[in-house]
Recover the amino acids of this structure.
């Protein structure tokens, strides 16, 4: 039995990767994840704002989390060695890259072209095995078209990919008019991998105080279908690695993403909710499932249920949607 896989050209012992989160913000956190069996870790993002306002993003995330729900207090770890600011971030990355046997992937979220390329170079020099571009900006100007938004993103990816030698992955939100076209363009621009998908900040309104409440709730397996569909639709169409992200709660979601064609799966919420040891439980569950179903390797199941070989898949998706709707016709509903 082998669980081995490759991601961005990196050989990994198995396909379960710790996604960027507060758990991967510190050297100790990343060490714990390696001890728990993570095949690779994506360090918490370096945000360009960290230069101007020390540590905005991490402070924001921790604040959001502790506001968000009762369980939040328990899922934010103590961060004794978390060193804020860019130099601290780079130092943590350098130490983690030296100390860990598994690849440490750096993550970057910039706002200016210079920020993206300059910091990508710094992350590479600090030892990152690869760089994940966390493309997270919300276009709010009605004068800026979708194609302009896409052009800017592609430019960033092109510039970063031309600047560093390590592989570059792009972590996307799911809101593009044509995900296949945008994905193909990203690969053309130099992306060696796509991470589908990031989750967005989820504000709400408190009707008692009329305050806008900040929250970043943890995901559940109910979030799986969106990423699952796009992994299945894209997996054989793109000459790049695919990482599935969102809703990986147990080995069940890991297996589903692999069947859809993912090279690796990334998990954050489940580890925050259940603790880092949960990673080992997922890996064991994957191994048990493969054994029980007579498969010798992860490669043997990868893409078995991808949708790229299905003819007229767009028509099929519509037909299935319409058929699913009929389940809710009056008379069919369970009272
Ligand atoms: C508290 C928290 C902090 C996060 N920090 C980052 C980050 O620094 N960079 C990033 O790209 N994604 C970040 N994410 C997103 C996760 O890496 C992941 O893509 C997303 O949560 C979906 O995976 P999940 O369903 O397993 O949580 C964060 C998520 C959470 C919940």
């Amino acid at each position: 039995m082998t669980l081995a896989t490759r991601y961005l050209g990196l050989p990994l012992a198995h396909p379960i990767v710790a996604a960027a989160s507060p758990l991967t913000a510190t050297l100790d956190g990343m060490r714990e994840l390696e001890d728990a069996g993570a095949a690779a870790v994506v360090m918490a993002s370096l945000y360009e704002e960290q230069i101007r306002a020390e540590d905005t993003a991490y402070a924001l995330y921790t604040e959001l989390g502790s506001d968000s729900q009762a369980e939040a207090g328990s899922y934010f770890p103590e961060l004794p060695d978390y060193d804020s600011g860019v130099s601290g971030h780079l130092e943590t990355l350098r130490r983690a890259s030296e100390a860990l046997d598994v690849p440490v992937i750096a993550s970057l979220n910039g706002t200016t072209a210079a920020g993206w390329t300059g910091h990508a170079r710094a992350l590479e020099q600090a030892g990152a095995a690869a760089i994940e571009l966390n493309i997270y900006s919300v276009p709010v100007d009605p004068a800026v078209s979708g194609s302009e938004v896409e052009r800017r993103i592609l430019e960033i990816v092109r510039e970063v990919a031309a600047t560093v030698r390590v592989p570059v992955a792009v972590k996307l939100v799911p809101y593009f008019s044509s995900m296949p076209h945008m994905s193909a363009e990203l690969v053309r621009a130099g992306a060696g991998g796509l991470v589908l998908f990031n989750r967005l900040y989820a504000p709400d309104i408190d009707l008692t105080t009329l305050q806008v409440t900040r929250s970043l709730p943890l995901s559940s397996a109910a979030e799986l279908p969106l990423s699952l569909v796009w992994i299945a639709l894209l997996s054989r169409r793109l000459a790049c690695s695919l990482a599935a992200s969102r809703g990986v709660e147990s080995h069940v979601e890991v297996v589903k993403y692999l069947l859809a064609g993912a090279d690796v799966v990334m998990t954050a919420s489940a580890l925050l909710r259940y603790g880092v040891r949960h990673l080992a439980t997922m890996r064991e569950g994957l191994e048990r499932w493969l054994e029980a179903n007579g498969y010798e390797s992860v490669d043997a199941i990868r893409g078995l249920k991808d949708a790229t070989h299905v003819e007229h898949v767009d028509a099929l998706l519509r037909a299935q949607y319409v058929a699913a709707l009929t389940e809710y016709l009056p008379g069919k509903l369970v009272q």
Observations:
- The pocket of flavin mononucleotide is lined by residues 19-22, 44-45, 61, 65, 107, 134, 171, 198-199, 216, 218-219, 223, 245-248, 267-270 (CB under 6 Å).
- The mean pLDDT is 88.
- The longest helix spans residues 146-163.
